[in-house]
Specification:
Length: about 240
Amino acid sequence: MEKKEQLYEGKAKKVFATDDANLVIVDYKDDATAFNGEKKGTIAGKGVINNVMSNHMFQLLEQQGVPTHFVEQLSDRETVVKKVSIVPLEVIIRNISAGSFAKRYGVNEGIVFDEPTIEFSYKNDDLGDPLMNAYHAIALKLATREEIERIKAMAFKVNEVMKQYFDTLNVTLVDFKLEFGKTADGTIVLADEISPDTCRLWDKTTGEKLDKDRFRRDLGGVEEAYQEIMKRVMSK
Ligand code: ADP
Ligand code: UDP
């Protein structure tokens, strides 16, 4: 596998072409941003942790019947994935109130829902990733009705698998963001990453936050929290 020209540099990852038109290499950085890029910093070792953890999650999900973009880990920061055209929606699943949900509806964090919720944001930094419903996404031709239905079903399945898995690590899965993509043949697969950058993870016993909220909210112990999650993920 030959790493060729850089196709894209995002806030947390770089994407490189390869000698295979259907494959790209993602390279995870230690850079961290929050609040649509307003807050910037680095989290030492984050790139390695997010790469290894994402790949672990993608392999677990594949075993449970969820197709993903994962192909092969190349190094501690680099992974070969199927090149997809990303559906420009951030798909957010919540099991417990937190973050923008708590703020928007004026409720406390920590309310355990009877059923998980799903919401979409339009993946558009210039507009600040506005909240969007399925009709809006279809109207703007971001996805078809069938693709939205497929994405919803896959996202809830991912939640079931991940909720159970994190429970065995004594971690509560509060909420998370997913991205989906379309392969050359039109198949919808889970893409991007699954990491403490994109999930809220609370220690089940102490309630301690083991995710990017430590960075967003200046809680300290950011690196330690990422390492703690990595340690637990590598144990199972
Ligand atoms: P951002 O673009 O939000 O700053 P990143 O720094 O994580 O995010 O950059 C990675 C980019 O690669 C994102 O735009 C993401 O949607 C995209 N991406 C993720 N997986 C794939 C894939 N399999 N094929 C093509 N692009 C992908
Ligand atoms: N999230 C993400 N990228 C985003 C926005 C949200 O990965 O651009 C994740 C975030 O880490 C959390 C979940 O999606 O696990 C829900 O985030 P929320 O809407 O509460 O937003 P935030 O608190 O980041 O404003």
